[in-house]
Specification:
By secondary structure, the chain is mainly alpha-helical. It contains 28 helices and 6 strands. The longest helix has about 35 residues.
Length: about 600
């Protein structure tokens, strides 16, 4: 919805003297609360029935709170902080008013912002505003020349990057402006290195790399020299050194200097290796060493050196286990345990199995888990800021989780699986299932022959796998989770393949060599066929149990021999036993639930 309800002429805007209302606002630092700081003036104007002036200030406040995406691809879209009321809400009246305000604005930041928004929104609507684009380019330059080299220059990198991107569109042939921007960027990088502010020099250097600017050869030696200093001076910082070397490496690559690029690549890895040999946590030091080895391998360091470092990493990881600690908290689950026990009433072993499989719950709705996982991420936002590395018992990194991005579907799926384990499946396997099993085995113990008969009669069970299924299910009833996992983990893949084939879906894929082969369990579970045939609930359950890196990873850990005997007896296997029981007995489970509903 447009902000201005009528057009504003240049004479009206000048007579309004709109800048008098923003004289006390400091535009040198980006502020998202400009709209709220303008509210008193807007309310006073509305009270005096000066509605047009109030609308102009509302438009100004809206534009000032927009967040730029300077690294986005053309056409350099801008989004609002709340991801709404952005450029799409501006119509021609708003754009024309912003263009006039940009030419009148005295402050460089405000002039740049007004011109930038007007020209970007106008371009999306087919308006030709080349002169206004040039105004934005020069206004960004004026602003950054005043503030980029200050103590808080890192707050103004977005404006510098935005200005350079716009220059390619609206001032491409202006050599003087190009030279000013070039010197500004180089000076900003030097200043950031001097202050040791990665937020300043990293942002500017990464933009040079991304845009492949021709002056990368001038910047690369600056970063390399600074990295050498970071690694050798009295305030030695190998982390800064390694990251500066990496920037120098990429800058040399852009410049086409392979020898210098490889030199910096090797130095980046060696800096992390040196850092890992200092004092501190064995877990952190092993992470640095592993990252250093990866960089050295990419830079083709001698094989003997890499081999020695792998041995050093193995020795270092031996000390991680001693650093691990467990934290336990008491929770009263008496009511839930009693409810699980009360659900198992028999009177036969067959009915007890149906009650255990279908009265203790269902597979979880992905939509509900998705919403709860996102809300949890927003509630505990600090946890989502940083990259997390997950280690096994020996300190080996088995998973890497980047900072959470709600717009990244892969991130959301990972968070959903992790949330499902932490808040649902673990609790089921530790509280609900054991209590129900205790009642069943004490009062209505099923026999191995009962499971074997069910597996033979079940249309969902894969043919030829009945004995293994029965052995695994029976082992679970006796709480022999080691044997249960040994038999049931390998049965999930044929189970899924059988269900897809029964529905007429193809489970084969053609490799690069032109030979057909069966799809893996992970490939099948993420397919549209699985979602349609198995249903989204079961797909999420099996991915959490078997394949997802943020889940139990039963399939991967078992297939690759990563479980020892003790680890095979885990809560994931308990949940897998329950899921397999439901799959085998699903036809009778539906009839049993229907009979209960009819009885009620």
């Amino acid at each position: 919805m447009a902000i201005l309800t009528r057009p504003v002429s240049e004479e009206t805007l000048s007579a309004m003297d709109w800048q008098q209302y923003v004289l006390e606002l400091d535009w040198s630092e980006y502020s998202i609360d400009s709209r709220f700081r303008l509210m008193p003036q807007i309310e006073q104007l509305q009270a005096r029935d000066e509605t047009l002036a109030a609308e102009v200030l509302t438009l100004l406040g809206h534009v000032a709170t927009l967040v730029m995406e300077p690294r986005a691809s053309f056409p350099f879209r801008i989004r609002s902080v709340q991801k709404k009321n952005g450029l799409d809400s501006l119509d021609q009246y708003d754009i024309e008013c912003l263009a006039m305000m940009a030419l009148q604005a005295n402050d460089p930041w405000l002039r740049a912002r007004l011109a930038d928004v007007a020209v970007t929104a106008g371009r999306d609507r087919g308006l030709n505003q080349w002169q206004l684009g040039s105004t934005a380019v020069h206004a960004y330059l004026d602003h950054c020349e005043q503030h980029l080299l200050g103590e808080q220059g890192f707050l103004h990198t977005d404006e510098a990057i935005r200005g350079t991107r716009l220059r390619w569109v609206y001032a491409k042939r202006d050599e003087a402006t190009y030279e000013r921007y070039k010197q500004l960027i180089i000076s900003g990088i030097r200043r950031g290195l001097e202050l040791r502010h990665p937020g300043l020099y990293h942002a500017l250097a990464r933009d040079i790399i991304a845009q492949r600017y021709s002056f990368s050869a001038e910047v690369a030696p600056i970063l390399e020299q600074a990295a050498n200093q970071f690694a050798t001076d009295e305030n030695c910082d190998y982390d800064l050194a390694s990251r500066a070397y990496l920037l120098a490496y990429k800058l040399w690559e852009v410049a086409g200097n392979k020898a210098s690029a490889n030199r910096c690549h090797l130095a980046a890895g060696q800096a992390l290796v040196t850092r890992s040999r200092g004092t501190g946590s064995a877990m952190l030091r092993s992470d640095w060493l592993a990252e250093g080895i990866q960089l050295l391998r990419q830079a083709r360091s001698p094989r003997q050196h890499i081999t020695a470092l792998w041995q050093e990493l193995s020795d270092l990881r031996m000390g991680i286990e001693s650093e691990m600690h467990e934290h336990e908290f008491s929770v009263d689950v008496t009511d839930i345990a009693e409810a699980a026990r009360a659900a198992i009433t028999g009177p036969t072993a067959w009915e007890a199995l149906l009650q255990l499989g279908f009265l203790l719950g269902n597979w979880y709705d992905p939509g509900m888990i998705r919403q709860e996982a996102i809300e949890s991420a927003q509630r505990f936002v600090f946890r989502s800021f940083f990259t997390q590395v997950h280690l096994d018992r020996s300190g080996n990194p088995i998973d890497r989780e980047d900072a959470f991005d709600i717009n990244n579907e892969e991130h959301v799926t990972r968070r959903m699986v992790a949330y499902l384990l932490e808040h649902r499946l673990d609790f089921f396997s530790k509280v609900i299932a054991p209590n129900a099993l205790e009642v069943m085995t004490a009062s209505h113990p099923p026999s191995f022959e009962l499971f074997l008969e069910a597996a033979y009669l079940s249309p969902t069970a894969p043919k030829g796998h009945e004995y293994s299924l029965a052995r695994g299910l029976y082992a679970g009833c006796t709480s022999d989770w080691h044997e249960c996992g040994t038999y049931l983990i390998p049965q999930v893949e044929p189970f899924v393949r059988n269900l897809l084939k029964r529905a007429g879906r193809n489970t084969l894929t053609v490799g690069d060599d032109g030979i057909e082969k069966e799809r893996t369990l992970g490939d099948m579970l993420i397919s549209q066929d699985a979602a349609e045939i198995l249903g989204s609930r079961l797909v999420l359950e099996l991915r959490a149990l078997m394949t997802e890196s943020s889940g139990y990873r039963l399939r991967n850990n078992y297939a690759h021999g990563l479980f020892n005997d003790a680890e095979l007896e885990n809560v994931g296997v308990v949940r897998l036993w329950w899921t397999t029981l439901r799959l085998v007995m699903f036809p009778w489970g539906r009839e049993y639930l229907a009979s209960l509903n009819q009885a009620v």
